[in-house]
Each structure stands twice: as C-alpha cells, then as structure tokens.
C-alpha cells in the first residue's frame, strides 16, 4: 500500500493560553481526501522551515488573524484586527520554501491573503469600512452553511475542476485580497467584486480560496473536489 501524502498545516496561535491550536475541520477534510495532516511548528528560521517543507508533500495555509499591513506597505487602520508577527513571518518563509521546492500549497481564508502578500500583493484591511456595500462577508452562525455566491471565472483551473460558473461558499472574513500579486491569477469573485480565489500559473498546485471549504467538507461536493485536487497533487 502506498503511503499517504503528509500535508503540513500552519497552526493557530492562542496567545492568551500560550497554545498552538488547530481547528479539527482542516484535519478531517485532509483525512477525508486521503492525506495525513501534520501540524507545523511556529519556527521562523528559513532553514528549519525548508526542512519542515521537505518532509511534507504539501502545505495548507490555514485561516487566522490579520496579516500585518506593514508587510504590504500600509499603515495599520483602526479596523484592522489582531496581528501575530511570529505567524506572519513563519507563514511567509514557509510559503517561500514551498514555492522553491514546488510543493502543492492550498491557502484558505487568511491563507490566500498571506499568499498574496508574500508575492507582493495587498489586502483590504477591513471590507465593511473600506469597500462597504450590501454583501456581508462575515457570516453568522452556523459556520457549516454556505453564505454567499461566487462567480467562477471560465477557463480557470477552478472552473475546470468544478464545472460550474457559480458556487455557494462560506464567508468568515473581514479582510480580502485587494491588489492581486503579479504572480497570481484570480479564479473567482464575490458579487461585490471581492477576489475569492486565486492560483499561481507555472507551479504544480498553488491555489488560494477566501472561503472555508473545510467547514462544509462533509456536505459539499465542491469542497470534496477541491481537497481531492490538492491532495492528489501531493501524491
Ligand atoms: Mn466572502
């Protein structure tokens, strides 16, 4: 029997309790898709992170707090949320190491934002105050239900994978990709124009989604297809 691909996950930092944590849903979705999830350490040494990447077949950049606006050359606005500099640094170096090794990367929520910033893009620091409009991107509970639709751009890998032009997604974010990094291409937009999914041409698999496919993994065929596509690239 062939071994399962190991997928490394970026941990959440709980400063109050001095803990690294992992929402179970990420692990369950990866397990469901046939991967072996491994929670990574919050190291910020480039050589350590390159070694961590070398023992993984793929990397999942998880959701979490806001990326420091200084990383994309902006002053922090009052509506910007909690920042964890150690995680910003870890995730940036981890992503660069994964790119250098051409390991598959899936970015979810903060993950797609971190990916965009690492490649020179910018973020909306707070959608309600900076973009406004009727579409609310911070959904109310329950979180395992879809919240708004996105249009999937025809001809993109996401459109090819799902075979749809419209998809209902979860939405638990107050930040989003603003200027898409030069190396990335958009593959889905919310009705208000907010970027909801990107990919990086020229790499085996570097995708980022603003929604939480892991939250609806059990019930959403689209989420199952997304994790399967990622994990299959990790084999
Ligand atoms: Mn959204």
3D architecture notes:
It contains seven helices and 13 strands. The chain is α/β, with parallel strands linked by helices. It has a single domain (6-234), classed as Class I glutamine amidotransferase (GATase) domain (Rossmann fold), CATH 3.40.50.880. The strands form three sheets. The chain has a nine-stranded mixed beta sheet with strand order 4-1-5-6-13-12-11-8-9, with helices on both faces. The chain has a two-stranded antiparallel sheet with strand order 2-3. It starts with 5 loop residues before the first strand and ends with a helix. The mean pLDDT is 97.
Our estimate of the beta-strand percent is 15-25%
- Judging from the principal axes of the Cα atoms, what is the shape? globular
- End-to-end separation: 13 Å
What is the CATH H-level superfamily? Answer: Class I glutamine amidotransferase (GATase) domain
Q: Give me the number of helical elements.
A: 7
How are strands sequenced across the largest beta sheet?
Answer: 4-1-5-6-13-12-11-8-9
CATH architecture: 3-Layer(aba) Sandwich
Largest beta sheet, briefly?
A: 9 strands, mixed
Number of strands: 13
* Tally of individual domains: 1
- Provide the residue-averaged pLDDT: 97
Please write the CATH class name.
Answer: Alpha Beta
Helices and strands, in order, run as: EEEHEHEHEHEHEHEEEEEH
Quickly give the structural class.
alpha/beta
What is the name of the CATH topology?
Rossmann fold
Catalogue the ligands.
manganese (II) ion
